[in-house]
Amino acid sequence: MTGNKEYDKVVELLKKKQTILHNKEQLLENVLSQTTTKDSGNHPGVYAYLFGWTSIGWIRNSMSTAAVFFLGVFIIQQVILNKRFNQLEQQIVRSINGLEQLDSKIGIKEKLLINLLTNGSNDSITISITDMNTFLEAYIELQESQEETSRSSFIRSYKKRFLEKRMEGEYRNESFKQNL
Q: Which of 131, 137, 156, 175 is placed for a possible disulfide with 127 were both Cys, Cβ 3.0 to 4.6 Å?
């Protein structure tokens, strides 16, 4: 109980001793301004609102774990997609090689498509099937007309050479007969 008595004595001495305040009004203003700024500090700012969860340990750890998990899933997904693209490219190469071996059994349209695929150009144009068929038919007609033209010119040149040789032969025969 002696501790309580001494405490009571100290409190009574402090009550008897009053401090002398020189600027009571300024002290009152300082106290009021500090209390108003503390009240406005209770409202969290944007930074505290957005990143306040980082001060809580278990939330921070669980968010980090979730981020690592999603990063792992993303990496695995990219690896799987890369493997599938490689397999698809190999299938295309195998099918093109197989078509080149069956070259005699396929038509001009398929040959043209194979040539377009195997030329290795990096440019690509997307057209509709009807436009492609129209293009191929025009190409076939052009090729046939060129073949006919080359055949007919070949036949004409052959006929001309044949007639020239025959005429030379007849001319020789006539000149031979005249010499006799």
A: 131
